[in-house]
Design brief:
- By secondary structure, the chain is an all-beta fold.
- It has no helices and eleven strands.
- A hairpin with a 4-residue loop joins strand 6 and strand 7 (116-125).
């Protein structure tokens, strides 16, 4: 709390990701063997951290304005791949690098009563950073092209204090 009407926070953003994919039929091209048709199972996970910074301004006793920025988080998902074909089985290590996008949110909150609050928020997410995910598999590099675009979303909701330690929230 910098003043009675302005606060600032800096924190950690922790992310655990699991990935599991089944593909049937899958076509893989293996140098020297040519195309192989079969079923794949890829499974892996990773934990990593990012950061965030937020601020809140108390415009009046009942109205506050806030903003938060969440950094990107880079994951290296490591796991196993299993490829089953009618005449052979290939398995081994699999890996993919994935960078989760950053986001920024601006919100406005209003205290209707001492126990009931409402708010609205506008969020931008940098999905365009996830253009392609390259899976490094025992059969070679297999890119997954996404070509996602940045997104905007708006949300609103209510919060009610049932006790000093317990509140309920609903929003869309």
């Amino acid at each position: 709390k910098i003043t009675d009407w302005w606060s600032l926070a800096i924190g950690a953003r922790m992310s655990y990701i699991t990935f599991e994919n089944y593909k049937n039929p899958m076509v893989a091209y293996i140098p020297g063997l040519g195309p192989i048709y079969g079923r794949t199972h890829i499974k892996g996970d990773d934990f990593d951290c990012g950061w965030l910074v937020s601020t809140q301004f108390k415009l009046t006793d009942d109205l506050s304005l806030g903003a938060i920025y969440r950094s990107r988080i880079s994951h290296t998902i490591k796991g196993e791949m299993d490829l089953k074909t009618p005449d052979r089985r290939i398995n081994g290590n699999a890996k993919a690098d994935l960078e989760l996008p950053s986001s920024a949110t601006v919100g406005l909150n209003y205290d209707i009563t001492s126990k009931l609050r409402t708010g609205v928020a506008l969020t931008w997410t940098e999905w365009s950073t996830i253009d392609t995910i390259e899976f490094n598999l025992p059969t070679g590099v297999n890119p997954l092209e996404l070509k996602w675009e940045d997104a905007w979303r708006i949300g609103f909701g209510f919060e009610y204090d049932f006790t000093s330690d317990f509140c309920g929230r609903i929003g869309y």
